[in-house]
Write a structure and sequence with these properties.
Layout lengths: L8 E4 L5 E3 L7 E4 L5 E5 L2 E5 L4 H10 L2 E2 L11 H7 L2 E2 L2 E2 L4 E8 L4 E5 L17 E9 L1 E2 L3 H15 L6 E4 L9 H7 L6 E2 L2 E3 L6 E3 L6 H19 L8 E3 L4
Parallel strand pairs: 1-3, 2-17
Antiparallel strand pairs: 4-5, 5-11, 6-12, 7-8, 9-10, 9-11, 13-16, 14-15, 15-16
Length: 248
């Protein structure tokens, strides 16, 4: 209906890595609540796109399956994680992917095999496509040590990232494999505030919102980082977050 009536739409999973304009969105916001996890054969899981990524991570590692242990504590949905090719600790969600079922905005449903898709650092073909991921199948490995590694990675993440405050997650992609958080720290911007938002004193690539900050506050900090990074290091930063404008 949205396409036939030419109504702009934005599909949202759990909202992580997504920043809406303060005015909202002049269109149809579709919240994906399609959630399910099925072990179809040992180690192969079919997962609905609205399923919590940390939930899948916990369920698989507690059964002794490895491949997604790195994702505990990353508060996104499966659909969003695949679209962004989410990753951490030298792993990416596409590493364990077997196939994806995709709904085009025309209504056509298509199944993509992993070998037919090209993923790279925080990129997937779905960023350029019109539609929504419906389901994905993951092939995991038998690994009794996966749960222990998962807990260790999670504790390290909690120590280094501002889990105690609301945030969008990492704002920028790491340029050329260099830690963007470290680069922002070198600019002396950690702790910088705009309105109710601030650049986390714990990790420079996080903008947190402890005091009812606005999208405008976040945009101002993003612009500050971009301008200073270019002025002092001649580096152009690429955003990792998805920005949804008021109208598209």
């Amino acid at each position: 209906m949205a396409t036939s009536e030419k109504i702009p739409y934005a599909v949202v999973g759990r909202g992580s890595n997504t920043l809406f304009d303060d005015r909202g969105f002049d269109g149809l916001a579709i919240i994906n609540r399609y959630s399910s996890i099925s072990e179809i054969t040992p180690g192969r899981f079919r997962v609905a796109s609205g399923t919590s990524l940390p939930l899948l991570s916990m369920k698989t590692t507690t059964k002794g399956w490895g491949g997604l242990e790195w994702s505990l504590g990353i508060p996104g949905s499966i659909g969003g994680a695949l679209t962004m090719n989410a990753g951490a600790s030298q792993s990416e969600i596409s590493d364990s992917l077997e196939e994806i079922v995709y709904l085009h905005e025309t209504g056509e449903i298509e199944t993509f095999k992993r070998e037919d898709l090209t993923f790279s650092y925080r990129r997937s073909p779905f960023q350029e496509m019109k539609g929504v991921i419906l389901e994905a199948t993951f092939a995991l490995t038998n690994d009794p040590e996966a749960r222990g590694r998962q807990l260790a990675v999670f504790e390290e993440r909690r120590r280094k990232q501002p889990y105690h405050e609301p945030s969008l997650g990492c704002i920028f992609r790491n340029p050329m494999g260099i830690s963007c958080g470290k680069l922002i720290e070198e600019l002396g911007l950690k702790g910088m505030k705009m309105g109710g938002a601030h650049i986390s004193p714990l990790h420079g690539n996080f903008i947190t919102n402890p005091n009812e900050g606005t999208a405008r506050d976040v945009f101002a900090l993003i612009q500050l980082i971009e301008e200073k990074m270019w002025a002092e290091k001649e580096l152009h930063l690429e955003k990792e977050i998805r920005i949804v404008p008021y109208s598209i």
